[in-house]
Amino acid sequence: MSEKINIICSDKRKLSAIVFPAKGMTKAAILVACATGMRKEFYASFCEFLSDNGYSVLCFDFRGVGESALKSLKEDPTEIIDWGVKDMPAALDELIKLFPNTGYHLIGHSAGGQLTGLMYNNDKLTSQFNFASSTGQVSNLSYPFKLKGIFFLKVFIPLSNVMFGYTKLELVKMGASIPKRVGSQWSKWCSSTGYVKASIGKEIKKHYYDKLNHDILWLYAADDTIANARNVKSMVQLHSKNSNETKEIIPQDNKMKSIGHMGFFKKRNSNLWREALDWLAKYKK
Predict the structure, then answer these.
(1) Quick check: 285 pLDDT over 80?
(2) What does residue 270 show for φ and ψ, rounded to 5 degrees?
(3) Contacts of 56 (CB under 8 A, 6+ apart)
């Protein structure tokens, strides 16, 4: 049975999480980190699948999102940097406390796989399985989607922040609304080269991207208009000391019309989840 819990971060900010204990003996413990604006509930079926296959799982809402947001999103000072510096380390510490003496893996979706280099406790990870994690660099997007990307980053986000006091993602069906500083930083990073690299040495005073050394699989869909091959490659380059493996999924090869940026975690595409099991099976306690 899954259980809702709260995680307390180093700055006392409270995060909402769901824990899915393994059915039977725990093979390893998994931290599932969400994409920007996506609530933890979106990943529930995937987490249950991992649990059914012997893995204990913790999935949480980043601060500023879902049940981890302040009552007034306008007043929420969260930045994306906080997710990597404070939220993900606290979630991993909680996972270790709940399931001691096992291996620990991260499964990241988009932003959830981009921020490991900000985690002070990244050395506790045995491996990382990413889907659709890339720089999202707008200059690497293909037309006509590139025009939508430019409009979203340069017009929608700033306008939404002025009109509502936060980035209202519901208007464009991209998940839950996010604090304005998250939206602004997202726009800045996707408009730059190397995503998070745009803030290293500026807002980011300390990072571990040049020290990470666990294995990472970078999985992406051939029809993903955001995490395309160019953007995945540029994100991998920031992880130069990791053992990186890149893999493309072609929808037609899996008898699917589309996968895109979000499709991997949808229950109707559960036949893809074997990719995660195959990756995790390579590692023992």
Answers:
(1) no
(2) -65, -15
(3) 19, 20, 21, 22, 26, 28, 29, 30, 95, 98, 99, 102
